[in-house]
């Protein structure tokens, strides 16, 4: 994490310094192109390193945080909740294993996160045909596990679409564009260009999220995906004002607003929808 922020700080400092120097000495095309290439390249290299590291650590993370529960036999002292969570882990492992090849993937590892605030975590990283998915314990808990199919299908869609690599490329292109603008344009024009690059990158991220929502809706149904986001919206409303605003502002850089996600899940066209077949991970009705 520190290396990531350090790399971002270096790139940002280089671009800002270039913008200042451009105002003092005028634009120099060769310098602008060089800074753009170095900044974009550094961003891409750093992103690829994080990507490969996450995939490389996937099997270990699965063994330490997932398989340690899913792979052991139940003990008499285990609570009913623990038994349920472990069973859901085994079901999830089997579903992912069974459907990996048909998604065009070679191997997908699973893990739970031990980070603070990871209770409702759900994220994925892919590299080529390899993928790793982190799932918070919330989605395995009896009270919330009805959302597990939609959450999992959303993350697997990211892997199937190769979104990790696309995002790194999009971010690197935006950084390179900002570096080029810093060395060629006036300060107001540079600020406008950088804002436009940031906005386009954000919209690209949003489209990827919405596309994965639609992929989940094709498999699980519109209602399942919309209900998942409605529950998230209810959780957001329950938070105090300042944390809610801060969380929303941070999230909007990579994720569209929840109301937009609900609207898309309910109304966007779903080509190749699979009808109303029950998802293999859909929990049985109580009673």
Assembly form of the protein: single chain
Sequence of strands across the biggest β-sheet: 1-3-2
Question: What's the total helix number?
Answer: 9
Element pattern in H and E: HHHEEEHHHHHH
Major sheet: 3 strands, mixed
Globally, the shape reads elongated
Low-confidence stretches: none
Q: How big a fraction of the residues is strand? A: 5-15%
Average pLDDT reading: 92
The tally of beta strands, per DSSP, is 3
- Range of helix content: 55-70%
Distance between the termini: 46 Å
Total domain units: 1
Topology, element by element:
Blueprint: H1 2-25, H2 29-70, H3 80-99, E1 107-111, E2 122-127, E3 130-135, H4 148-160, H5 163-184, H6 187-220, H7 222-238, H8 241-251, H9 258-267
Parallel strand pairs: 1-3
Antiparallel strand pairs: 2-3
Summarize the structure in words.
This protein has a three-stranded mixed β-sheet with strand order 1-3-2. It contains nine helices and three strands; from the N terminus they run αααβββαααααα. Helix 2 (29-70) packs antiparallel against helix 5 (163-184) and helix 7 (222-238) runs antiparallel to helix 9 (258-267). It has 287 residues and is mainly alpha-helical.
